[in-house]
Write a structure and sequence with these properties.
503 residues; alpha/beta; seven-stranded mixed sheet; five-stranded parallel sheet
Length: 503
Amino acid sequence: MTTHVAPTEVPPAPVEGRRVQDAAGPSPVREGSHVVVIGGGPGGYEAALVAAQLGARVTVIERQGLGGSAVLTDVVPSKTLIATAEWMTVADSAAELGIRADGGPDGEVGRLSVDLGIVNERVVRLARHQSRDIATRLEREGITVIDGTGRLGGKISDQGTREVLVTTADDAEFSVTADIILVATGASPRVLPGSEPDGERILTWAQMYNLTTMPEHLVVVGSGVTGAEFAGAYNALGAPVTLVSSRDRVLPGEDEDAAELIEGVFLQRGMTVLSRSRAQAVRRVGDRVEVELTDGRVIEASHCLLAVGAVPNTADLGLAEAGVAVSESGHIQVDRVSRTTALRVYAAGDCTGVLPLASVAAMQGRIAMWHSLGDAVAPLDRDAVTANIFTAPEIATIGVPESAVESGAVNGSVTRLPLARNPRAKMLGIREGFIKVISDRATGAVLGGVVVAPRASELIFPLAIAVTQRLTVDQLANVFTIYPSLSGSIAEAARTLHRTGDA
């Protein structure tokens, strides 16, 4: 018989910026407790693995496939597509490096071309393989997986347990008793009213992998991270692309220097960028689409991608009945250890609206299990989150942004080093990009950084270590780097921030 131990904590209402000591005091380890996870994406399956490691009995309820949208329709597929596009951008600089395609029998120089059907077939295949790998791992750890949907029951028992109501894929209905519940249901693409996607000509990012032929002309509505990534990828693959941006520049909210560089690269590669332009309707007309802007202009194209944000999957989960507070946008309110306002109910991932990153979802899920099952836990630190935009070149960020220094909110120093002067970059034919390091003016501690470069997602790691471990610019500068290497520019940037005795 399983003994359920009541928790010692009562979750308070979530407060933005909760201090570390407010999240202290998790309950004793409840080995053998039943953890039910609703949603099998990064937040859900990572939480399940931690809970199993801590001795809990774990059930995961997932309707789409393990890995969720992150693995099946979002992160993994889009980055696989972008990896193919990256090869095309590399090929564009081949001539500069002395590489050329031999001429054919008619004397024409050969050019690379893309078979989008094969590309997307590979994208979908790799996503399914990743999902199966996750399923195998959960099975190996003894975790029960139910193919279906789950919702919270409204009542809590005297022992502190809750019912989770389950509807399986074949419409069977039953309930399971849970000591701890994690809601990790993710989010879905937002659509413009009156511009419903048809999956053929008007598409969300989850439907882009249905395409078997290259668009004659792709209009991307939305210049945030998703819009910029897809626009850049299809432009590199050879499709004419028009990017509709409602803001002054692409990637609003990102580092201004990085965003301006990427927009310049887009324009240089032949993309049309319509700044301060807002789409009000997208219509399908036969085998074409019309994108109507608020100023009356109409753009005709073969396809349109709607990349206008996401909405949390929190409807019909029984949240209100269970006492789980949500925001006006529908996001579940959580504190820094992933607690909701309901006892023993936690939440993780895009359904919380904390940061729309798979890495953050996974960390939220792990933190939830460490806290609820009594293991050592550190609350989520948003300043320690690394983020990456998979354009070409990539944009990676960590910590305090330069805007905080410019506004006076942070007493910091900023240095920016162009990547083009790096010897390794010259060898590779890299002309665009830079390293930016932000430090505390008084102590020299590294507070943040930006890397714009090929594989910036890898290059940001030294700066992430420096920020999270509170290293100074002198400590970072005094670490040996390989010569020549792109990472050498990180040490060089740190050296420029050295504080002299008079500083």
